[in-house]
Amino acid sequence: MKKYISLIFIFGFLFFFQSCSSQASLDSKTVDALVDSQEFTFYAQRANPTNYDVINVMNSIPNSTSTRILDLNGDYTIAIDKNNLEVVLPYFGRIFTSTFGDRDKNSYRFTSKDFTFNKSQNKKGNWTVKIKPNDVTNVDEIIIEVFKNGKAFVSMRSNDRQPITYDGYVSKNEEKPKEKEKL
């Protein structure tokens, strides 16, 4: 009898943690509508540098691991609408051009008004979105792979640094409050 109670307790415990895990998933029709409208926001949850030297340096920091450093808090986004592309993402890796004195150039922080947006959907229903900003010099292409449940994978290709990828999810753009007219 004690074995059955302990097994029920263990399964209940696992079920409880399964249901408490954060799952930002959408239905496939909502994801299709977001990508079709070309107006959505990607929220980065994790950065994945491609250079193992970077990961080794992060692991050498005392009392820390690279997995904790590379988990992002959701403040890093790619916001896309018909006229505007706004990118705010951190960068972990090797930059080939010097950026002394200008800390904003160490990460991806830019707004583009001139960009091309190409989308395609495969047989499984996953979307591939290719964005090429024409008015940003260091970013060559942004590839966003959006899955049916709203999860997404972003790959950034640049001219002056090693590639990096991000895991996260897509969501509807947040409504910006309109400024009140001054009387």
Secondary-structure element string: HHEHHEEEEEEEE
- The coarse silhouette is flat
Give the helix level as a range of percent.
10-25%
Q: In terms of per-residue confidence, which ranges show pLDDT below 50 for 5 or more consecutive residues?
A: 19-23
Q: Classify the secondary structure makeup into a structural class.
A: alpha+beta
> Can you tell me the CATH architecture?
Beta Barrel
Largest sheet: spatial strand order: 4-3-2-1-9-8-7-6-5
Please tally the β strands and state the result: 9
Strand content: 25-35%
**CATH class bucket:** Mainly Beta
Q: What's the N-to-C terminus distance?
A: 77 Å
Notes on the structure:
By secondary structure, the protein is an alpha+beta fold. It has a single domain, classed as Lipocalin. It contains 4 helices and 9 strands; from the N terminus they run H-H-E-H-H-E-E-E-E-E-E-E-E. The protein has a 9-stranded antiparallel beta sheet with strand order 4-3-2-1-9-8-7-6-5. Strand 2 (77-80) and strand 3 (85-89) form a beta hairpin. The longest helix has 19 residues, at 2-20. It starts with a helix and ends in a 12-residue tail after the last strand. The model is unreliable at 19-23 (pLDDT under 50).
